[in-house]
Amino acid sequence: MLSFIAVAEGFHTMGFPLLAIMAMFASKLTTGTAGRIADRWFIALLALQGLITLRTVMHADTTWLIHMGTLMLLIVGPVVIPSLRHPQNQPVK
Questions:
Q1: CA-based Rg of the chain, rounded to a whole angstrom?
Q2: What is the distance between the terminal CA atoms of the chain, rounded to a whole angstrom?
């Protein structure tokens, strides 16, 4: 039986980066009210992933490369991945 510490370490290593990547895809692939909620989740998880990456680099953790790659994907991904939202439907600011 896995201990709580082992499960938490596994979530820290791969679970949270995958959750953040799924939030990025959800924010690009949803529209309407769900899209705005997904955008908020993505921004929150992006900030949290940045803090987690900073912590792993400062502590010289062995998972720093996974977290740096995830952070890079979360920054570049929204620019590269096409959105399902039409520019005509977006309000002009």
A1: 16
A2: 54
Q: What is the pTM of this model?
A: 0.74
**What dihedral angle (degrees, nearest 10) is formed by the CA atoms of 40, 43, 46, 47?**
-110
Q: Which helix (H) or strand (E) holds 91?
A: none
The domain locations on the chain are: 4-89
Neighbours of 14 (CB within 10 A): 13
Tens-digit pLDDT profile for the chain (93 aa)? Answer: 567 777 777 777 778 888 888 888 888 888 888 888 988 999 999 998 888 888 888 888 888 888 888 889 888 888 887 777 666 655 555
